[in-house]
Amino acid sequence: LGPALQAAYKLMSPTGGRISVFQTQLPSLGAGLLHSREDPNQRSSTKVVQHLGPATDFYKKLALDCSGQQIAVDLFLLSSQYSDMASLACVSKYSAGSIFYYPSFHDVHNPTQMEKFQKDLQRYLTRKIGFEAVMRIRCTKGLSIHTFHGNFFVRSTDLLSLANVNPDSGFAVQMSIEESLADTSLVCFQAALLYTSSKGKRRIRVHTLCLPVVNSLSDVFAGADVQAITCLLANMAIDRSVSSNLSDARDALVNAVVDSLSAYRSTVSNLQQSGLIAPASLRLFPLYVLALLKQKALRTGTSTRLDDRVFAMCEFKSQPLQQIMRMIHPNLYRIDDLSDEGALHVNDTMVSQPPILQLTAEKISIQGAYLMDCGTGLYLWVGKGCSQAFIGDVLGCQDHASIPQNMTQIPELETPSSERTRSFINWLQENRSFSPILHVVKDDSSAKTNFFQQLIEDRTEAALSYYEFLLHIQQQLSK
Predict the structure, then answer these.
(1) If you write DSSP's letter for every residue of 343-408 in order, what string do you get?
(2) Could you please report the per-residue DSSP string of 400-459?
(3) Which of 33, 140, 285, 465 is the most buried (most CB within 10 A)?
(4) Separation between Cα atoms, residue 364 and residue 379, nearest integer Å
(5) pTM attached to this predicted model
(6) Is the pLDDT of residue 86 over 80?
């Protein structure tokens, strides 16, 4: 792989552009060769997780060379065994490229991954692209921006070099208050992106955000955006787990919840409430942090392949906020009893709006069918006692036993319940850059584990339930 990339770099240097890499195994020859670093016995370690960083700086150096010549490298890793994602990903991270990963890929034996690869590649080849881009983020005097998250190379203190820019990536920045803002009523942030369109036109896109400066901490809490906070903390935790270790990163996440609720309690000290008190804006903060601790990127004590963990980290660092939030806290719906009550009208179609359920097994009945939206995948779990009408009218099967193991499509049947179910699933999929693959999960299939691992409010062998986590936070607050 190394020599091939070096050759591609030499060929592309005069013009810039993008290199697409399709890799199926650990590179074992020439420059940039890698050796297996994963110990399968350490996959469920509760202590230190090793080898989260690269084994060599070859791929980072090559990426910086590419970035200097306005070349981005996009990596598609289609692998059935360990391929050292931690080292290979550097070639995309620092050249503003994208990373795609298909574990256990096989074009015959794993049709789900094959379908995902086809859809991703189609989007990759047809989405808009900007070349030779730079992004500068400015802020009002008295504030400073000091850390950036995403796939890019920081050329100077506030200038990000993006050889390619696409509509499917996200960036996060950290700022700090350097001077008193007492004399000003509002502060501004501005992101300016300068790029060349695919038609050769030089363009600039500017986003400006103005925020009021307030005197009281309660106003700060009232304006808190819990999703943005969660996603930024996820980025910070991933940096911490690579530079220090995973347990430090996990502790820092828990401390963020404790510190914020402690600060809130001291600002509203006149409230004589027992138990946990949180501002309305941060009520879901403990739940989201618990969900983060149970993600592949940050979990301990649950068997997690090293490449899977590192890819999950890459996703958090480069995906847009909405996609990250679906990965952290999926949406769960019961869909065997969809109705038109409260439905949306979308392009002459009625789209049912079932309520979002809590992510706990208590909300799941063996008589129902449940759809879980995890951002990158949709899981339709069909209980053993699910009504014959739903199995026949929606899935087109005679009974629960006849539902095929690797079902990824819902047949187009001319029944009201089939049309409702398909329009709801299509509605969920159409607002995404990369449409998620549907997995129909039976009560006895192997994919069942993936479904139930996402029920983050429940206790597992290695992690607390939501109730236990809240008790733990309360104990920390009362110290």
Answers:
(1) -EEETTEEE--PPPBPSSGGG--TT-EEEEE-SSEEEEEE-TT--HHHHHHTT--SSGGGS-TT--
(2) GGGS-TT-------SSHHHHHHHHHHHHHHHT-SSPPEEEEEETTSTTHHHHHHT-TTS-
(3) 285
(4) 14
(5) 0.92
(6) yes
User: Is the alpha carbon torsion for 382, 385, 387, 388 positive or negative?
Assistant: positive
Q: Which residue has the tokens 């990903």?
A: 89
Residue 341 has phi, psi (to 5 degrees) of -70, 125
Q: Distance between CA atoms of 371 and 359, rounded to whole angstroms?
A: 12
The CA angle 276-282-287, to the nearest 5 degrees, is 75
Distance CA 392, CA 78 (A): 36
Give pLDDT tens digits for 113-155: 888 899 999 999 999 999 999 999 999 999 999 899 999 998 8
- Rounded to a whole number, what is the distance in angstroms from the first to the last CA of the chain? 54
Count of other CB atoms within 10 angstroms of residue 431: 8
How many angstroms separate the CA atoms of 387 and 392, rounded? 9
